[in-house]
Amino acid sequence: MYLSIEETADFLSMPEQQVRRYVLDGRIKSVHDGEQYLINQSQFERHLEQVEDVKRQIDEWRNTPIPDDIDVKDED
After folding, report:
1. Which is it for the CA torsion 64, 70, 71, 76, positive or negative?
2. How far is CA 20 from the centre of its chain?
3. Which whole-number Å values give the CA distances from 23 to 17, 42, 72, 76, in the listed order?
4. How many CB atoms are located within 10 Å of the residue 2 CB?
5. Are 29 and 39 in contact (CB under 8 A)?
6. Residue 40, SS3?
């Protein structure tokens, strides 16, 4: 499914100008049909999966309890 720059900005929750800049810089792949840039939505699926995975890992880390007895030896 192809999205316009405005739709892509909404989809990614980014400012429209930033998406436009990424398209013009080549950081987001797009097709120009003569009037507007069209962006294939599927190129973001892997990125969004990775973001969700990192969020899950951070939540796991935050919810991991600190051990009650830390075996630390003072070696003075």
Report:
1. positive
2. 17
3. 10, 15, 53, 59
4. 15
5. yes
6. strand
List, in order of start, the domains of the chain with CATH numbers: 2-63 (1.10.10)
Helix residue ranges per DSSP H, 1-76: 5-12, 16-25, 45-63
**Closest of 43, 45, 38 to residue 23, by C-alpha:** 38
CB 19 within 8 A of CB 28: yes
**pLDDT 10s digits, 10-40:** 998 999 999 999 999 999 999 999 999 999 9
Q: What is the pTM of this model?
A: 0.65
Q: Which of 53, 55, 34, 40 is nearest to 5 (CA)?
A: 40
